[in-house]
Amino acid sequence: MSRNAKFDGKLIIHVVDNITGKPIEGALVDPGMTVDDEGVVASPFYTSSDGEGSILLSGKTHD
Amino acid sequence: MVKEAFCYPVKLTTSISASVKKAGYLPKSDGWSSGGFLRSGNIPNSYTFRLTPLTPISPPRPQITKKDLIGTWILAGTPDNVEEPPAAGGRLKFITDKHWTVTQADPNTGEVMFHLGGVYTLNGDEYVETVIYATESTKDLISKDHKFKIKVEGDTLTIIGIGNPWTEVWKRAK
Q1: Which residues of chain B lie closer than 8 angstroms to A10, CB-CB?
Q2: Judgement on whether residues B113 and B51 belong to the same structural domain of the protein
Q3: Which of A13, B22, B96, B129 could form a disulfide with A27 if both were Cys (CB 3.0 to 4.6 A apart)?
Q4: How many domains does chain B have?
Q5: ipTM (interface pTM)
Q6: B129 Cβ partners below 8 Å, 6+ apart?
Q7: Which residues form the domain of B133?
Q8: Which of A13, A26, A57 lies at the smallest CB-CB distance from B47?
Q9: pLDDT digit string (tens) for B115-153?
Q10: Nearest CB to B43: which of A18, A37, A61?
């Protein structure tokens, strides 16, 4: 499995202001995800006060 | 290929995309502020969206010209209490294309109680007076700048002090 990509199943999304670099709270993030070209449900979320949120992914990814 | 058949999970190709939107930030034609696609394999543990803030559209600044100001004005009160200026002894403000003065005389004797003046600048509705000279009671104001927002409506000049206490309504002297 040397071709396994390193991915822990969670992708942290940061949303920041492009001018000030400060985190943006309450931005709506709408993820889309496909596994082997099949659409997988990913829940939209609003970023926290730190401008963060996460997308959870089951399984590992391979090249 | 046989080796991979025993692996769990079976070879997955995963891709993630995400779009972000937030009021006050630049939207694209689809209404979303930004989008990004992450290819399968080597998906990072984090991804940063950078949203460009919308530039607030400032209302156009009222264009007041020196021509609107030039003349003799008499103090008529404050915006919340405008009164008819007195026939005599009122506080007068004289404005030319560069200079201004304010003179207050005793209504009974005509003796000048205080007098001060100087130069001014005008930029849109921003009016700044610089005090160059003054009589004894107001000499502390010499060399000081005083900023105002001003409005001219017919024969009425309203000045609103910014960082100073002078918010006044003046009527054009007849």
Answers
A1: 45
A2: no
A3: B22
A4: 2
A5: 0.79
A6: B100, B118, B119, B120, B145, B146, B148
A7: 66-172
A8: A13
A9: 999 999 999 999 999 999 999 999 999 999 999 999 999
A10: A61
